[in-house]
């Protein structure tokens, strides 16, 4: 798998020369290297040109997922760069291997017997990751970030207690002892040096889970997440790029909800590592039945900060994004759900919910079904609670997809008018503006509530037209005035569209026609906004919107699909 490192290499360069101090794994060090590259005299300097020419003899430098074909002298010559290239990205491609690092120049800690600092007190260290050459740009960027953070931590420890000086001296002594068998010096270094132990643990964590958690010199905590690796366990091998996560988080809305992939009580290790008291407050008030706006109010956090914490949990594969679980949610079985009889999820479900069978529970969602249809009002509350818990479990394991209703405006028999997308919708006329001025802008109202974070979606004042009373309709009391008013509301529609809309009986109701024209102008009926999003943005009740869809069903069609904003966390998405 191209996200796993082939090897991790530690190289240093100082006034005494450059040297490869440690590499892991080291068991695959070759004995059949070309004789021209071997240095019989350990005090001779290698010729870089000759070393590079010897590399061209082999077209591959990978062997069973590990780095092969490079001697220590070659690697030290390649990675011990000049001081001018320090503190910047290092990237080198040789055959089918790409090397990534961040050389760090650090001043060695002054010793009591050396009161003056000179050039001999400067050392360059470079922690290099060997990757497959096919590794994506985002994977290379992540490993460069890890190398840079390692360099910063080591620089801090060298300044604090001379950690690097002690570690490099121990490593150099192990190499100078003259071990003959390949890997003997590295094995001694691994037993004596904590830095080598950290490199080994880093390699093992990157290859196994993609989550790194180490302490440099048992003091500086270093945590790292490789999202391309860590999301594979719950998305069954799907590669998730950081750019995909950023795109999803940019589409995050206050009406979305957070779904933890682990029980909240099992997140202690993660919260202790993060050290954020606001994250602990968020998790203590967590519920997949709450939207993020409600969660922010209950945790007494700003909505913007809740978004940041949500992004943190999603990036580290501790949570995913869903729509809050409620009775109107409609679910269907995911097309990639592993629900065959021999699936390990069947036994796992039985262990979590004794007495229930996964195949029987999930069969109720063979066709799109809402929770309201599954919940029997006569059932005991414990049964309803158990149903909600099974839904949460199936969502955590990506067995269900939530379907949202989208609306498409099709006013003519041939579909959408050809000039509909090209034309610029006109603003309402002054007379129409007087009518609309009695209601505050729904978008402004929604924006103000998002900034305040003081109310939830369920508590948001609903958009109504109660102020649109008979006084404002006095000027359209006659049939001619009424027809003029209708035509004025649809002034920016084509003649063919107006003809189709005027055939609908609901156009006789000014409130319905006004709301229909308003939603059309805001392009909510182009299949890009689902009902829940329209409700939130325009402060509409679900019943009010569904009634409008029913009244204008001759020109509005609906279809159901998943929300593309969070489809990345679905195994069925491509």
From TrEMBL:
Origin, by domain of life? Eukaryota
* InterPro entries tied to this protein: HTH_NPRL3, Npr3
User: For the GATOR1 complex protein NPRL3 C-terminal HTH domain, which residue ranges apply?
Assistant: 495-557
Q: Specify where the region named Disordered lies, as residue ranges.
A: 422-460
Which N-terminal residues, if any, form the signal peptide?
Answer: none
Report any one BP term from Gene Ontology: TORC1 signaling
Q: Which GO terms describe its cellular component?
A: GATOR1 complex; lysosome
Q: Where does this protein have compositionally biased stretches of type Polar residues?
A: 426-440
Q: Where in the cell is it found?
A: Lysosome
- A UniProt-annotated Pfam family: HTH_NPRL3
Q: Per UniProt, which keywords does this protein have?
A: Lysosome, Signal
Q: Which PANTHER family match?
A: CGTHBA PROTEIN -14 GENE PROTEIN, GATOR COMPLEX PROTEIN NPRL3
User: What is the role of this chain?
Assistant: As a component of the GATOR1 complex functions as an inhibitor of the amino acid-sensing branch of the TORC1 pathway.
The record's family statement is: Belongs to the NPR3 family.
Question: Under which name does UniProt file this protein?
Answer: GATOR complex protein NPRL3
The source organism is Brassicogethes aeneus
Upper taxonomic lineage: Eukaryota, Metazoa, Ecdysozoa, Arthropoda, Hexapoda
